[in-house]
Amino acid sequence: MKEIFERISIRKFEDKLVEHEKIEQILKAAMAAPSAGNQQPWEFYVVTNKEKIKQLSAISPYAACAENAPLVIVPCYRTEGLRWNETVLLDLSAATENILLEITSLGLGGVWLCAAPLEDRMTKAETVLEIPSALRAFALIAVGYPAESRPQQMRFDESRIHYLDCCMNAADTASFMPVSPSAQMTRISFTPRFLSSLRTPSQYFALSFSPICIPRTSL
Predict the structure, then answer these.
(1) Which residues, in sequence order, are CB contacts of 164 under 8 Å at separation 6+?
(2) CA atoms within 13 A on the CB side of 184
(3) Which of 137, 192, 209, 217 gives a 20 to 30 Å CA spacing to 13?
(4) What class has domain 2-144?
(5) Separation of CA 155 from chain center
(6) What is the pTM of this model?
(7) For 46-100, what is each residue's pLDDT tens digit?
């Protein structure tokens, strides 16, 4: 998905409205996000009123760039009727990332402006939008047609990756690599009956972390 490697934070916007069809597509992407127990704790305020946007841009020194955005989306989370209250910030983070990626795919730009978990910023945003007490403001996302561009910063750092493989070393892994296009790899799936036959937790644990690949040409 190329948008992952193209997305940047945009803080300068053209004086051009975002079409309703694109706004709806952005919100569809947001609601496609995963959430704990599929609880979907989110609701979204779509703000195009210039006075309201100006007030939202004042909730923190870092939100000032939102003032010139034609659109601000405010993801919120419910505080009642949830099974997993502890995960709502994670759920909303996933939805917000989906928003940013969909914005990029639509030729728009945007920036994630923090509200939660800072109580003063959350309260200010909720006051501006007259949000009911059963909802909490999570963030501001300023959206519009970008008036700036730059390549995404290269952030890949191999030193931060830690491979754990107690069962196969590099030489073992290489011996399973296909030698021709016809030697495609097959993953073995174990039946519930087989898994239930494992007698100890350690047996199941070892199996779970053991990559088992067999070239199809040998089957």
Answers:
(1) none
(2) 3
(3) 137
(4) alpha beta
(5) 17
(6) 0.75
(7) 999 999 999 999 999 999 999 999 999 999 999 999 999 999 999 999 999 999 9
